[in-house]
Amino acid sequence: MLQTSPPCNRVYNKVVSGVPNITSHHTSLLFSTFYFAISILLTTVTISPHSTIKMPSFTVFKGSKDGSIVRSETSKPALTGDQILLKVTASGLCGTDLHYRKADMGLGHEGVGVVEETGPDVKHMKKGDRVGWGYEHNSCEHCQQCLKGSETYCAERKMYGQADLDQGSFAHSAVWREAFLFKIPDELSDEAAAPLMCGGSTVFNALHAYSTQPTETVAIMGVGGLGHIAIQFASKMGCNVIVLSGSDRKKDEAMKLGAHEFIATKGAKELKVSRPIDRLLVTTSAQPDWKLIAPILAPGASIHPLSVDGGDFTFPYMPMLMNGLTIQGSVVGPRYIHQRMLDFAALHKIAPIVEKFPMTEEGITEAMTKLENGEMRYRGVLIPQ
Question: Counting CB atoms within 10 angstroms of each CB, which of 20, 43, 259, 338 has the fewest?
C-alpha cells in the first residue's frame, strides 16, 4: 500500500535536506518551530473570513416588576447561520404585550424593519429588504408538525415571552432568523404591516387554515384590535359577514369595513340573524353568553376563540352534541399562511386602523395605558425615534 508523509513533514524534509551537522535535538526543535508556524498560519486563514462581522448592540425597551417601561441596551453575538440584523421601523402593540409588562424582558412581537446585515447562510434576503416578524421565534424544523407546515405547534417551538428575552420589536434593532422573517409587499406601509404580524396572522389563520368558503356566513364577535381586521378579511374572501357587539356604537364603522349585518347583544333575550352562522370568530377578551349564541349557529358550525383568556371555556353540552358544533383553538398562522396573509392584505388593500406613538418610555407607557383602558382605535403602532 502506498504511504505518504503528512504535508508538514514533507515540507520540513525538503527544508532540512542537505543542511549538515543537524543533531536530533536541533531537528526536533526546528520541526516544532516550523509546525507551530504552519499551524498559526492555517488557524489565521480559517477564522479570517468571519473576523469582520461585528457584535451588534442596540436599544431595547423592557418591562419591569412595577410595570414601568425601561430603556436598556443589549448586545448580540456576531451573526451566524441565517441570522439577520434588522433596523426596526415600526412595531405593533398587542394585548399580549400587556401580559409581559411586569417581566424583565424585551417587549414587542409585531415588528417591521429593514435588513441591515446578513449572516453567512442567508439566501433569500438582502440589505435594504423590508421584512416583518411575529410571535414565533423558532422551531425544530424536523418534527412532523414542522414538516407539514404547522410549526406553530412544534413541541420545541420558541414563542414570544419564552425565547430571546433580551430583545423584542420595541427596539431600535433586532437579530432574527431569516427562516422566521416575512417579506413585506410594497403596497403595505410599515405602520399598516406591523399589526398584521400577530393580529392579522391570528384572524387570517382562523379563516384560511380551516377552509372558509365564500358561501359561508361568518360572524365576528367584537370590533376591536382583532375584530376590525377580521371583518375586512372575511368580507374580501366573499363571505356574508355578521358582526356581534355589545352596543351599536361601532355599527357604522363595522359596516364601512365590510360587515353586511350588525347585531347589538347587550340586554338581548334572543338574537336573530338573517342566516345561521357557519363560523364564529371570538375576538373579545371576555366570553359571551353561549346560551344566547348557540341558537344562531348553523349545524356543523365552528367556533374559534382567538383572544387570550386564563379561565375555563364553558359551552352548553347538548347544543354542541345535537348540532355537531366544533370548537377550534388556534394560534398565529404558520409561516406559509402568514406570508399569504400579507399578500392577501396587499392585494385587497386591507389595512388596520392605527394610532401612532413614539417609541420612547413615555410613548410606550401612553399606548399601553390606552390599550388597557379600552380606548385604542384600534391598534397602536410605535415608531422608533
Answer: 20
Which among 291, 213, 275, 288 is positioned nearest to 242, based on CA atoms? 275
Whether residue 318 sits in one domain with residue 379: no
- Residue 156 inside a domain? The answer is yes
> What does DSSP say about strands 110-118 and 83-93: parallel, antiparallel, or unpaired?
antiparallel
- Do 61 and 187 lie in a common domain? yes
Q: Residue 108 phi/psi, 5° resolution?
A: 100, 135
Pairing of strands 158-159, 136-138: antiparallel
SS3 62: strand
8-state DSSP, 106: B
Whether residue 36 is contained in a domain is answered as no
In one letter, which amino acid is 171? A
Grid coordinates representing 341? 396573509
Last residue of one domain, picked from the residues 311, 327, 343:
327
User: Judging by beta carbons within 10 Å of its beta carbon (0-12, 13-18, 19+), is residue 196 exposed, middle or buried?
Assistant: buried
The pLDDT, as a whole number, for residue 246 is 96
The Cβ of residue 256 has, within 10 Å, a number of other Cβ atoms equal to 9
Q: Provide the pairing of β-strand 326-327 with 136-138.
A: unpaired
| Main-chain phi, psi angles of 194, to 5 degrees | -55, -50
CB atoms within 10 A of CB 24: 7
Between CA 116 and CA 137 the distance in angstroms is 19
Q: Are strands 173-177 and 182-183 parallel, antiparallel or unpaired?
A: unpaired
What average pLDDT does the segment 92-118 reach?
98
Tens digit of pLDDT for each residue in 12-39?
344 434 444 444 444 444 444 444 444 4
- Are residue 293 and residue 191 in the same domain, yes or no? no
CATH number of the domain that residue 101 is part of: 3.90.180.10
Distances from the Cα of 238 to the Cα of 96, 165, 250, 313, angstroms: 30, 41, 22, 30
Considering the domain boundaries, does residue 108 fall inside one?
yes
DSSP state of 49: G
Flag whether 239 is in a domain.
yes
| Domain total in the chain | 2
